[in-house]
Predict the structure.
Amino acid sequence: MTVNVAKDVLNQLRDVLIQLENSQYAAPLRVFNGASLGKHSRHVIEFFQCLMKSTTENVLNYDARVRYLRLEEDVQYSVEVIDKITEYLSENNFDNIGISLVSEFGNEEQIAVPTNFNRELIYLIEHSIHHFALIRIGVQESFPHVNLSECFGVAYSTIKYLKK
């Protein structure tokens, strides 16, 4: 179930990206203080890449991720990476894989806590939706031709609440 939600979330981003030109995707936006849609997308994608990597290393450190600048400049490449992540999620079973989550908080000391794949996948779903809300603002402000679903950037709990 969690994997299916994560794939749905990634495909929501994919549906937005395929409507953009590279120049739009990489454009610094005033509403983002000069950041771009691509930078927010890269951030989301890289967090998923970190989680995928943790399935072989059993250590997850979002802070130490590699920043792939091509992900913030090249729409087609970003879509291909999203497709690879969703395929990887579909083809593997990660239930209850234990992971050590390592974090750094402004000093050189690292903190490690136990977690598991599904817990981190839930975090990535929520984290992605948060960034999608920001992406929505950038799209609506600068690229009104892009069609956004009414649920893009809205938390599942909010959607459920609004339906009542």
Helices lie at 2-17, 22-25, 37-57, 75-91, 117-142, 156-163. The beta strands are 59-60, 98-104, 110-116. The radius of gyration is 16 Å.
